[in-house]
Design brief:
Number of strands: 12
Bound molecules: aspartic acid
Strand content: 15-25%
CATH superfamily: (Glycosyl)asparaginase
Distance between the termini: 17 Å
Number of helices: 9
CATH topology: Glutamine Phosphoribosylpyrophosphate, subunit 1, domain 1
Order of helices and strands: HEHHEEHEHHEEEEHHHEEEE
Radius of gyration: 19 Å
């Protein structure tokens, strides 16, 4: 159904246009097999998301503003740190932590509930300089899963820890632990009850509030890329279910030669299509621009309603692409760009 455009405050501009495919430059089009060597056209760039899916346009003005405020505050945090010269990894971790601490998004505080009424969180981070990465899944007592994922990357000789092992490692590393009740929000609990009721009635689970996720991708002043993603997964997920977020190359990927990507949506689909790495591969092997590669994967390989992704390339090109009704998102760079949005036409 066509909805009227809604005007947002002056600071908040529509970024739907950012999802438009970009014509590849003759340079990239002529060098399909080579890694991009383009010099960044901006000093730094950042994009973030707070999840994609069926986001009702009927939410109250206050709630909409609360989302935009939190997205804007997280983006301003990242912008400030990048202006100071902070590293891409530091900025990714700090921005994702901010979003994890917000009860509005499905990550950290405010995570969705499993079928058994628990919160089991996944996260991953990746360093585009050397493909180093860290991931964790199924944690139930870690306040900021992105920080633990980073510790896995920097302080262990492994890439991926799960459940009790991940928590034991977190305790050894001194990351902040919380009681499981910390993640609770009434809204997510109510979503589970609705999903369970529908399931009992042998209907599909409620589409609204089913999932979400937070993520951030950054190009820093030194020309390095990093990506991080954190999630509570999907409402009503079964025991031990792990989504795409901590699967490197599915929900999270970064490579200085190509792109940093963070995904959100129906995790199983993103794993099957190795979405984040596929975007990187199109840039690396086919010489596509970042937006063009992201469009090709989100609209060409995934199905309508599956979700979306954010990406930033080595030249600072940002893509925010989704095939769902909306995606909480934001983008900024050193040219002065600073935008947050929810749907495709909310200017
Ligand atoms: N991709 C996440 C998962 O499947 C959920 C989401 O991003 O909405 O766990």
């Amino acid at each position: 159904m066509q909805r009227p455009l809604r005007l947002l405050p002056a600071l908040i501009l529509c970024i739907g246009a950012c999802a438009a495919p970009e014509t590849p430059t003759s340079e990239t089009a002529e060098a399909p097999a080579a890694a991009p060597t383009a010099k960044p056209s901006v000093e730094w760039a950042i994009a973030l998301h707070g999840g994609a899916g069926v986001i009702s346009r009927d939410i109250s003005a206050e709630k909409k503003q609360a989302y935009l405020d939190d997205l804007g505050a997280a983006l301003a945090l990242g912008r400030g740190r990048l202006e100071e010269g902070a590293s891409a990894l530091d900025v990714v971790e700090e921005v994702v932590r901010y979003l994890e601490d917000s009860p509005l998004f499905n990550a950290g505080k405010g995570s969705v509930f499993t079928h058994d009424g628990k919160n089991e969180l996944d996260a991953a981070i990746m360093d585009g300089r050397d493909l180093n990465c860290g991931a964790i899944s199924g944690v139930t007592r870690v306040k900021n899963p992105i920080t633990l994922a980073r510790k896995v990357m920097t302080d262990s000789r492994h890439v991926f820890f799960t459940r009790e092992g991940a928590e034991r490692f977190g305790q050894e590393m001194g990351v902040e632990m919380v009681e499981p009740e910390y993640y609770f929000t009434q809204r997510r609990w109510d979503s589970l009850q609705k999903a369970l009721a529908r399931e009992q009635a042998e209907e599909a689970a409620a589409p609204e509030d089913k999932h979400g996720t937070v993520g951030c991708v950054v190009l820093d002043k030194a020309g390095n890329l990093a990506a991080g993603t954190s999630t509570g997964g999907m409402t009503n997920k079964r025991f031990g279910r792990v989504g795409d977020v901590p699967v490197i190359g599915a929900g999270t990927y970064a490579n200085n030669r190509t792109v940093a990507v963070s995904c959100t949506g129906h995790g199983e689909k993103f794993i099957r299509n190795a979405v984040a790495h596929d975007v990187s591969a199109l840039v690396e092997y086919r010489g596509l621009g970042v937006a063009e590669a992201a469009e090709a994967v989100v609209h060409g390989k995934l199905e309508k309603g599956d979700g979306g992704l954010i990406a930033v390339g080595a030249s600072g090109e940002i893509a925010l692409v989704f095939n769902s009704e909306g995606m909480f998102r934001g983008a900024a760079d050193s040219s002065g760009r600073f935008e947050v949005a929810i749907w495709g036409d909310d200017e």
